[in-house]
Amino acid sequence: MSTRLQKGGRLIDRSTRAEFTFNGKRMSGHAGDTLASALLANDQMLVGRSFKYHRPRGIVAAGPEEPNALVNLGRGERLEPNQRATTTELFAGLMASSQNHWPSLEFDVGVANNYVSRFLPAGFYYKTFIHPRAAWKHVFEPIIRQSAGLGSAPKDPDADRYEYVYAFCDLLIIGGGIAGLNAALAAGQSGKRVMLIEQTAHWGGRAVVDGDEVEGESAEDWVKSAVDALKTMKNVTMRNRCMGAGVYDHGYVLANERVADHTPMDGRPKQRVWRIRAGHIITATGAIERPLSFAGNDIPGVMLAASVRDYVVNFAVSPGDRTVVVTNNDDAYLTAIALVGAGVSVPAILDARTNVTGDLPARARAMGIRIEAGRGIASVKGGKRVTGVQVCLQAGEGAVLEEIACDAVAMSGGWSPVVHLWSHCGGKLNWSETLSAFVPDASRPPLNHDGAAMVTAVGAAAGIYRAADIITGEAGTQAPVPPVWVMPQGAPIALRSKMWLDYQNDVKVSDVQLAAREGYESVEHTKRYTTLGMATDQGKLSNINGLAVLSSALGAEIPQVGTTTFRPPYTPVTIGALAGEARGEIFQPLRRTPMHAWHEENHAYMEPVGLWRRPYCYPRSGETHAQAVHREVKNTRENLGLLDASTLGKIIVKGPDAGRFMDMLYTNMMSTLPIGKCRYGLMCNEQGFLSDDGVVARIDEDTWLCHTTSGGADRIHAWMEDWLQCEWWDWKVYTANVTEQYAQIAVVGPNARKLLEKIGGMDVSAETLPFMQWADGNLGGFAVRVYRISFSGELSYEIAIPASHGAAFWALLHAEGAEFGAMPYGTECLHVLRAEKGFIMIGDETDGTVTPLDLGLSWAVSKKKADFLGKRGMERTFLADPDRWQLVGLETLDGSVLPDGCYAVAQGTNENGQKNTEGRVTSTYYSPTLNKGIAMGLVKHGPARMGQVVEMNKVDGSTVKARIVDPVFFDKAGEKPNV
Questions:
Q1: Which CB contacts under 8 angstroms, 24+ apart, belong to 221-228?
Q2: Parallel, antiparallel or unpaired: strands 703-708 and 649-654
Q3: Is the pLDDT of residue 265 over 80?
Q4: Does pTM surpass 0.90?
Q5: Does the pLDDT at position 856 exceed 80?
Q6: What is the model's pLDDT at position 476?
Q7: In a domain, 568, yes or no
Q8: Which of 436, 464, 489 marks a domain boundary?
Q9: Tens-place pLDDT, residues 725-780
Q10: Average per-residue pLDDT in the chain?
Q11: What is the CATH number of the domain that holds 936?
């Protein structure tokens, strides 16, 4: 049975006990324990059930490679499914429960799958898709859907807090073992900005556990000295409990820090995601021990040899009283030596090699440990825990030579460098015959944008395992690891069908061989057919062994078969950590203009516009929203209106090729725009559909400022960058989204010029600053840029000012404009004003299927330019069809307001018996200026049908008649903006 040893345990504090529960059973451990070590100390060998066959599963490993010990932590709003017991630090009050069973862990009815496993081979899921079809829909599909998934999905909102932070460094080192610490010392002493992260709570890695010597002193002392030295360096940042999750282009790395394994309750977040930009990256991520495949190697009590050693040395826990060690390399001898040194019996070491020599085997023999060379395990005896092993010749066919009674098995099939992060961004691998493992190819590393190496692998991650060699950076003479993956070598099918590769997904040696026989020769196809490596551990233990079995079945070498793709994250990251603070009201980042507080103080009714909050209207006491809008419209037309237009998108386009780029973006010519002037422009997507519009200002010889719709700046800026980075990468153009850098205020109405002249500072007369021009200057003591543009059809100035001065300038305009009837107006008034003038609104008149020609904007589409985005799309036959609906104005005969989105009813019905339509309303309002309802819409042959009456449907099923008119309802001559 597994027990707590009386001595040892370098990481635990025996003076502090921590009570916890597992499946409701009260247990106790010590401070410093992991949940896994505490469970073993309480002799809890059975921790879960496998996914497919519901076979009993026990703890196999001691780190993030653990495939079996996945538990539910907590309950209710703090329920966390699929948490690894091996990486969960024990704390008082921890509540854990096992997964994937019913009604209980000890008695699970799902184990019935195990007894019909011959009918559920690899790929049976896919075969049920094919035949019989009726059985799939009514029998197999409900069963498979019900069986899918592990753990219990939380039903309550997560009560914990998460955050993310940004970091920049010259060198990022991932891994805090000997290799990582050594690299950090060298870089730190050179003055570089260094960030060192380690996924566990402790520094030093395996060398401390194994009792290695580093530079003439014990690894433990060397590590302490190194950590102390690094802590004194101000240019070095150290983070433990911080897992390097993924490496991306241009030195971008995501790391997940566990601030606490339970709710901190002290204001700290539970987890923190680091977004790191590094000049160079060193992966010192170590290596993972491989299991061996033999019949019954999944029975609780069969563990990785190095993990057994971890539990003994770090936590003073032995997984059994009698442990058989089975290996193909020297490293497992350290486990046998540690067990005997701790007072635990090791009946035998079964070594697959026929010639066992060297220092470690000699030390084991000197301790009286029995060593059997050329031997393997035919099968493990036991059900829910190990009771013994059957020994056979490794080179034989499984004939049992003897049985050895034991309650634990420590296995080692060699080590595989952790190459995941190296591979995330394109680093290539070489097969090492000596190590029987893939190692990073230093001549083909992941590259930066300038072609320089972006990532370097060091230490065990580079295939250098010994501490002394890690310091020098060169691998010394290493004992070769024979390519032994399966025991015994010639095992019959009866044994192969009980040898497990993927513990969580129940993939056997025979499953991979079946996949090969059925034609799945690609390792990627085999992976998906068998689900090998698709569990939550992402094949950390199973991939190499599965690859070896596949290559053997195909009669090919392992390098020829290749590897599966390594993708981030290295270990699972909770969605809460990825979301950070983006939840609830701040699920998306709320944007507020510099005048937002003023709007709230003046009782503005706010509406969302993209991620912005803008005033819809400013209702006064006793006013409805409609009445407030009507008042704002009339005042703006008759006196003076002030609009917070800060949300208007503002994008700088600059560079020697900026004019060329602008001509490709817009349907009309922009490169010919004179400096100091403005021009209205349209943007289309590749299909020819209208995407955005706005006023463009020419700032200087190679600089343009593009205004976009509110809420559209991020989308349009991304669109620009997409073309520059992916298509026109060699054009010398720079873009910058400066939307939030400036506040922008529209001063609108007959008294607009009077207000600006009153506050003084620059000449804003029609002669000096005519319509569609701009000028820099000073107004009321503020540095401003003034555009003579209008979206209302009135005399209008749009004034851009640094965002930090926006609120003060807004207040000045209101104070000085009181005598001119200054009044703020909101977005609904803005819509009414623009609709009265027949100006389109992106998102109202457009829906992703409308072209500039549909809207009567052919004058804004250049006929001279050879090309622009959307030109060929717009010329397609369907988009040039004369029967397309086109923009018109609509007025009801009775003056009422048309329903938003209503359709024009045509003669006849369609094949479904529904009435045909010949148009639809895009914008509809009551016009206080005209004292009637007005609308804009798209109607078939609309411009040719001026004066005709169409029938529009209403929500209640009735109809109303409307006349087709010019979409410009107010100031058709366009005289007012030019005064």
A1: 222/178, 223/178, 223/181, 226/181, 226/182, 226/184, 226/185, 227/181, 227/203
A2: antiparallel
A3: no
A4: no
A5: yes
A6: 63
A7: no
A8: 489
A9: 999 999 999 999 999 999 999 999 999 999 999 999 999 999 999 999 999 999 99
A10: 92
A11: 2.40.30.110
Q: Beta 408-412 vs 323-327: how paired, if at all? A: parallel
- Same domain, yes or no: 116 and 184: no
Q: Is the pLDDT of residue 76 over 80?
A: yes
Residues 251 and 399 both lie in one domain: no
| 3-state SS, residue 509 | helix
Here the CATH number for the domain that contains residue 688 is: 3.30.70.1400
Q: Let me know whether 775 and 786 are in one domain.
A: yes
CA angle 347, 348, 354 (to 5 degrees): 170
1 and 92 in a single domain? The answer is: yes
Higher per-residue pLDDT: 159 or 180: 180
pLDDT given at position 563: 84
Whether 683 and 729 map to the same domain: the answer is yes
Nearby residues of 373 by Cβ (< 8 Å), 6 or more positions away: 351, 353, 354, 355, 356
The string of DSSP letters for 882-914 reads TTSEEEEEEEETT-PPPPTT-EEEEEEE-TTSP
- Taking 70 as the threshold, does the pLDDT of residue 518 lie above it? yes
Asked whether residue 445 falls in the same domain as residue 297, the answer is no
d(CA 615, CA 828): 9
Give CA–CA dist 677/620, Å, rounded: 39
Range(s) of the domain holding residue 918: 880-979
Domains contained in the chain, number: 7
Residue 923: half-sphere exposure toward Cβ, Cα within 13 Å: 28
Same domain, 9 and 63: yes
The confidence score (pLDDT) of residue 152 equals: 77
Tell whether 124 and 250 lie within a shared domain: no
Long-range contacts of 957-960 (CB under 8 A, 24+ apart): 959/905, 960/892, 960/893, 960/894, 960/896, 960/898
